[in-house]
Design brief:
This protein has helices at 10-20, 39-43, 56-62, 80-94, 115-128, 141-145, 148-154, 171-183, 202-213, 224-233, 238-252, 262-267, 274-282; strands at residues 2-5, 28-32, 47-50, 68-71, 98-104, 132-137, 157-159, 191-194, 219-221. The protein is α/β, with parallel strands linked by helices. Helix 4 (80-94) runs parallel beside helix 5.
């Protein structure tokens, strides 16, 4: 039995899709905050169990009879460490044989502010005694694809990553990797640094966008504070704007680059190229 937490989220749904191609639906458990949102998973034969990162008792119930758990990191910034601790404790109480955690690329030395809660969770895992594997995910290409509509509207792609190279991959690539690790033996103690096969600067991203959109969209590099202010001006909540601006600055320091190709080795195929992801987004 394999349980996936946050199973109705963007990554969780893709992980379950990948697992369904590898094993019977009856052996997959979708742990979700709101089971009503997982009706489609239930119809596919997946077991749906209620489990909330903020409600430890719900997690203990959700993990009964489970062999492996995928802990998809919480999206609630500032609350993640406490929430992840609840999952780890519940997994320990249930006696799971493997807890896989979606961490951050090179979390132990990342310049991104986002790394702090991942570092804290990794420390909790080591202290817990629960057998674990770390899936240190790099950037999702979708994180930048989301900025295409405003870039086309305003005629410029803005950021604060300077010349930093970003080795991103499609969210589906990371989901497939998680499904592979969950279905392999002998994964305890492994640390995977997962990133795309190829990298790009945001200037190169803008050049590819210009090519595909048929109009010139230059990349405009900004100081981190100015980029954050622009994001807030576009309607993003301050914590999200701060996260994105800080992450771009982290990218300028090499925080989103890796060339070990562990992701493509794990999934047995090249990672999805930027051009392909962008073409799908524009369509």
């Amino acid at each position: 039995m394999i349980a996936v937490t946050g199973a109705t989220g963007q990554l969780g749904r893709l992980v379950i899709q990948s697992l369904l191609a590898k094993m019977p639906a009856s052996q997959i458990i979708a742990v979700v905050r709101n089971p009503a949102r997982a009706a489609d998973l239930a119809q596919a034969g997946v077991q749906v169990r209620q489990g909330d990162y903020t409600q430890p008792d719900s997690l203990i119930s959700a993990f009964q009879g489970v062999e492996k758990v995928l802990l998809i990191s919480s999206s609630e910034l500032g609350q993640r460490t406490a929430q992840h601790k609840h999952v780890i404790q519940a997994a320990k109480q249930a006696g799971v044989s493997l807890l896989a955690y979606t961490s951050l690329l090179h979390a132990d030395r990342s310049p991104l502010g986002l790394a702090a809660e991942h570092q804290a969770t990794e420390a909790l895992l080591k202290e817990s005694g629960v057998p674990f594997v770390l899936l240190r995910n790099g950037w999702y290409t979708e994180n930048y694809l989301a900025s295409i509509p405003p870039a086309l509207q305003h005629g410029a792609f803005i950021g604060s990553a300077a010349e930093g190279r970003i080795a991103s991959a499609a969210r589906a690539d990371y989901a497939e990797a998680a499904a592979v690790v969950l279905t392999l033996d002998d994964q305890v103690g492994k640390v995977y640094e997962l990133a795309g096969d190829t990298s790009y600067t945001l200037a190169e991203f803008a050049a590819e966008l210009s090519k595909q959109a048929g109009k010139t969209i230059p990349y405009v590099n900004m100081p981190e504070a100015d980029y954050k202010a622009a994001l807030e001006g576009a309607g993003l909540p301050a914590p999200i704007a701060d996260l994105l601006a800080d992450s771009d600055t982290g990218a300028s320091k090499g925080g989103l680059f890796d060339d070990q190709h562990q992701l493509s080795q794990l999934i047995g195929r090249p990672t999805t190229p930027l051009a392909a992801s962008m073409k799908a987004a524009l369509a």
